[in-house]
Write a structure and sequence with these properties.
The protein has 419 residues and is an alpha+beta fold. It is 52% helix and 10% strand. The chain has 20 helices and nine strands. The protein has helices at residues 2-14, 35-39, 41-44, 66-89, 99-111, 131-141, 143-151, 156-163, 172-181, 187-200, 209-215, 230-248, 251-269, 283-293, 298-305, 323-328, 331-345, 378-381, 387-397, 410-417; strands at 16-22, 26-31, 216-219, 222-226, 311-317, 353-355, 368-369, 375-376, 399-404. It has a four-stranded mixed beta sheet with strand order 3-4-7-8. A three-stranded antiparallel beta sheet has the order 5-9-6, sandwiched between helices. Helix 4 packs antiparallel against helix 5 (99-111). It starts with a helix and ends with a helix. The relative contact order is 0.10.
């Protein structure tokens, strides 16, 4: 068995025949057979979608793309795979890995985001097809991409299976790759926290990635981490908190994303836009939609593009049982609330936007491998990120906000709210 793991490691390293220079991870080595996949139009479109959308209005350096990020996820996925194989080669664990399976997993790392379109995360409340399902459709249904994958000796259906966890699968190797690609310490999170911090020019998201990947292991077919790495998990969770506080949910970022969401909702409501119009777009195509479709709400799109963002007119800590929250918890209720408030203020409906971020968690569900091989939950070892502390973090971040043009006085908003 050890000879098998040695041959798998040799195969994995031996195929890394060309490199791409990345500002974060430096040289990212890939197989030559992946060149046509990277060159395909589907993957190249990721280079025209900013990873953080309009955040560059707040942090001008944040113009990195989903293509950069996808290469980074491949790089960290490769590091995790080699770390696990080295442990298996030492006799510390048993893996169901095959040469074909490993290549399939790395291809999934590279293509995991191809189903994304601009502002997709801001529109989660809408009944849109998930980006994982869209990725699977492209991998299996786009002829040029499918051919590029299969010419690399990879079955496109299996790549889609790893990415889209909603598809039933009982293949143990595929299930292992799913747990690696999506979890508390997945390559996606380890790249985007580091990359977003790097390009925003803030120190909060930086992780000790090489140490984390070396401490990952597999227990009962699931990814786990050794007890020595608990500090790294705490660091990751606190970094996540700081990045949400200072970048992802900063009021400037939230204003821009709320304006886009409002523009899309109004355009869907008046029939000038359909859900299908959103899929497969890059940033430029997204902002061209109003002129192509002649949207009545085109000014909102243009305002975000040109950094003419709405001002924060009202803010309070989100309360699940709050009076305002009860009226605005669902999209339909929020739209009605905005319309009524706009009427009381005497302004168009498009000039009043309620923004409520989605719930997030600061808990870790990754199992911890303790001394003697015992498997425990993270919070059995750690008191800092307990359930109660996680709720405190979430409460401190989640705000009920109303954004309006600067011409609408904050006092007028308070009077209209009858608070």
């Amino acid at each position: 068995m050890q000879r098998t793991y040695t041959s798998l490691l040799c195969s994995l390293y031996g195929e890394q025949q060309f490199s791409i220079r990345d500002p974060l991870w430096k040289d990212i080595h890939l197989p030559l057979s992946f060149k046509p996949i990277i060159a395909d139009a589907v993957f190249q479109k990721l280079g025209r979608i900013k990873q953080l959308g309009p955040t560059f209005h707040l942090y001008p350096g944040a113009v990195h793309t989903r293509l950069d990020h996808s290469l980074g996820v491949y790089h960290i996925g490769f590091s995790i795979l080699t770390s696990l194989l080295k442990q298996a080669n030492s006799g510390n664990l048993v893996l169901p890995c095959t040469e074909e399976g490993m290549k399939t997993f790395l291809c999934a790392c590279l293509l995991h985001d191809i189903g994304h379109f601009p502002f997709a995360h801001s529109l989660k409340e809408l009944p849109l097809t998930s980006h994982e399902a869209m990725a699977n459709r492209l991998i299996c249904g786009n002829e040029s991409l499918r051919q590029a994958i299969e010419q690399a000796g990879i079955q496109s259906e299996k790549v889609g299976l790893i990415i889209d966890e909603q598809i039933p699968c009982d293949d143990e190797e595929i299930k292992l790759y799913r747990t690696i690609l999506s979890g508390t310490l997945d390559p996606d999170k380890l790249d985007y926290l580091n990359r977003d911090a790097f390009f925003c020019g803030v120190p909060y998201g930086t992780q000790d990635v090489s140490y984390i990947t070396d401490q990952l292991t597999v227990v009962d077919s699931k990814l786990a981490v050794t007890e020595q790495a608990i500090g790294s998990i705490e660091h990751l969770l606190f970094s996540k908190y700081l990045m949400y506080r200072n970048v992802y949910w900063h009021k400037t970022t939230r204003s821009a994303t709320a304006m886009i969401k409002k523009a899309v909702l109004l355009s869907l409501a008046d029939g000038s836009l359909s859900f299908d119009d959103l899929y497969g777009l890059d940033d430029q195509q997204f902002f061209m939609l109003p002129s192509l479709k002649k949207f009545p709400n085109a000014p909102l799109f243009a305002a975000v593009r040109d950094n003419r963002l709405y001002r924060l007119g009202f803010e309070k800590t989100y309360e699940a049982q709050g009076v305002l929250e009860a009226q605005t918890g669902e999209v339909a209720g929020r739209t009605a609330f905005e319309s009524a408030l706009a009427s009381r203020l005497g302004v168009p409906e498009s000039q009043v936007i309620v923004d409520i971020p989605e719930p997030i968690s600061f808990e870790s569900d990754i199992p911890i491998l303790g001394e003697g091989g015992t498997l425990k939950r993270f919070w059995d070892f750690d008191q800092i990120f307990s359930y109660d502390i996680g709720k405190v973090f979430t409460k401190s971040l989640r705000k009920f906000r109303i954004f309006t043009p600067s011409c609408i006085a904050q006092k007028a908003i308070l009077e209209a709210l009858e608070l």
